[in-house]
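A.,

Following up on our hallway conversation. Structure tokens first:
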């Protein structure tokens, strides 16, 4: 059985939804649909994929108390605060180092806390395939969607040759390109 460990990145400052979302009240702790917060929806979405007590959250000092109060399924000691806000790669690296000590050989999945997923059944099936592929060896699996328009606020994946059914090699990843 594959030991899958989701890491939820929840340290963002929330400037895109200003004025509703601010540093101490970032979008991931808001219930934009009036029912569940974005981070609660993220945890709910991953629940069919992971055993209890295996999910971790990386956040910041301003949000940690709110997040702990919202997540009854994640032990408080598994909600970690970044020592300094440095974006995605350092937060994922921190989680990877920690989990290599706690659960060597586990498959680490890094997920943003603020995505809206329309087809959650397809999402779960895709994550199951991704976890299985990652567990086959020294693989890093990156998920992406086909963009509908150019957007400098997001990174993009340049794909390479096909590996097998719907799985492509990554030629290059570009983080939030300039407008030029």
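Then the amino acids I'd put at each of the 180 positions:
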């Amino acid at each position: 059985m594959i030991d899958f460990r989701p890491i939820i990145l929840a340290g963002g400052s929330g400037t895109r939804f200003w004025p509703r979302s601010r540093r101490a009240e970032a979008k991931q702790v808001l219930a934009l649909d009036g029912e569940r917060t974005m981070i609660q929806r993220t945890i709910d979405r991953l629940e069919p994929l992971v055993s209890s007590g295996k999910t971790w959250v990386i956040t910041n000092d301003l949000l940690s108390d709110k997040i702990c109060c919202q997540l009854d399924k994640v032990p408080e000691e598994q909600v970690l605060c970044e020592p300094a806000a440095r974006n995605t790669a350092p937060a994922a690296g921190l989680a990877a180092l920690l989990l290599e000590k706690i659960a060597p050989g586990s498959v680490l999945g890094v997920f943003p806390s603020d995505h809206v997923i329309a087809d959650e059944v397809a999402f779960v099936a895709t994550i199951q395939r991704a976890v299985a592929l990652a567990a086959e060896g020294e693989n890093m699996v990156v998920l992406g969607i086909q963009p509908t328009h150019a957007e400098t606020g997001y990174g993009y994946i340049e794909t390479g040759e096909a590996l097998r059914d719907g799985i492509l090699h990554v030629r290059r990843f570009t983080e939030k390109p300039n407008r030029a």
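The chain has two domains: 4-137, 144-180. Curious whether your intuition agrees with the design.

B.
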